[in-house]
Amino acid sequence: MDDSLQYHIMLGKKDGAKYAILPGDPGRTQLIASFLDNPEEIAFNREFRTFAGYLDGEKVLVVSTGIGAPSAAICMEELAKIGVDTFIRVGTCGGMQDDVLPGDVIIANGAIRMDGTSKEYMPVEYPAVADLFVTKALADAAKELDYRNHIGIVQAKDSFYGQHAPDSMGCSQELKSKWSAWIKGGCLASEMESSALFVVAGVRRLRAGAVFHCVWNQEIAGKGMPQEGRTDDTTKAIKTAVLALRKLIKEDRENG
Hints:
- The protein is α/β, with parallel strands linked by helices.
- It contains 8 helices and 10 strands.
- The chain has a 5-stranded mixed beta barrel with strand order 5-9-8-6-10.
- Strand 2 and strand 3 form a beta hairpin.
- Helix 2 packs parallel to helix 6.
- The mean pLDDT is 95.
C-alpha cells in the first residue's frame, strides 16, 4: 500500500478538497455526485466509496461512511488529514414526533449521544452540536427549495434493532424508557452517525452539519395515525445539502 494514502479511505493529499458530503450508503454516492460538475469515482475501499467533482468551481468530495459511528468517525478523521474541513452528512432517519412525516427534511442542530465512538473522544457531558453556519446554510437551502422541514435534535444510536425490536433485548426496559424520554424532550428523529461526527468535528476544529430524509415514523404507525407510505427517495435531502454547500462556498470566498 502506498504510505501516502489514508489507511481506510485510500485517498491521499492529491485527492483532497475543502468540502465533503457524507452519505452512509456507498450506493448513494453516485447519485449525489451527479449533482456536481465532472464527477469521477476515485476510490472504493470497504464501505468508503469516493467521488470527486466540482461545485461552482470548488472541488467537492462525496464519500460514503457505511452504517454507524465508528466508520463515520474514521472517515472524517482521514478526510481531515487530506485537507477537508467542512462536512455535510446526508442520510436517512425515522421520525419520532407526530408532525415528522415520511418525505420530510430533517436538519440536525444537535444529537443525543447514544453511540459509543464519541465517548472515546470526549466525556458524555460534552455536547454533540452541529456547526452554526453549516446548519444555517442547510436551513436557508430547505426554505429556498420550499421543502417541508424540521430543525432540531436527533437521536444517534448504535443498534438499529435496539430501536426496532427493543423487547428482544436484555436491556429492553432501559431502551424503552430512554426512547420515551427523547420523545418528551422533543427529539425529532433517530439515525446512527451524527453524534460522532459532531463530536469529532468539535475536537478537531472542523465544521459539520447534517440533513436527513425521513423514511418512516414508527410512532405515528404505532398510534394508528395516518401518514404517507414509506419513502426511500432521498433527493430532497441531497438537493438541500448541495444548495447549502453552494452557499457555504460563496460565503467562504467572500470572507477570504
